[in-house]
Amino acid sequence: MKPVGILMLDTHFPRIEGDIGNPASFDFPVIFRTMRGIGSADAVAAHPDRPRVLGALKSNAEALAADGAVGLSTSCGFLALYQKELEQLSPVPVATSALLLIKKLDGKKVGVITASAENLTPAHFAAVGAPTDTPVEGLPPNGSFAATFLRNGTTLDRDAVEKEAVAAGRALLRDRPDVDAIVLECTNLPPYKKALEYALGVPVFDVLDLLGGFRKGLG
Question: Are 125 and 134 in contact (CB under 8 A)?
Fold first, then answer.
């Protein structure tokens, strides 16, 4: 089976099984390519330097396709912002972000847990054809998750991150009890999917769900 290519941010934090950056997270082949100089702060931003980021996406997408990738994704859900542009520039099909799942969950009232509620804007949702008023709950900006994944820490407190994710999910459902499905924007959150479903009692979807379907569609 030919691989899916993953456009990786330039980071150093741990990537445990379930994280998009760990090949053991997938039941099909993947190849990774780091976009040198494009880090978390470049992607997780309300108003990123779009030409710079898109340039890095384009050149690295071409390199991954040349290496044999039959489809592409990215290591950050915020790169949904570039879905339409990258579709036009990439030599192979593209699925940038778990946010693409929102429009597929027809009949569900979807809420999103994100790395940064402050920076996830209506433009990110519009870029993937999702409702721009989709309910959002972010991980705490000064918590354990942020210390590792937003500030590029070299250690991970898995239990603390799981507790923060569950707390965010509970806050989302408390504020929006009409939500009956959750999408995890962040590609570092799939390791906590089972804990979230157990705690919240609603189905939870992540980038691994997206890419499983995406790969099947590539033949």
Answer: yes
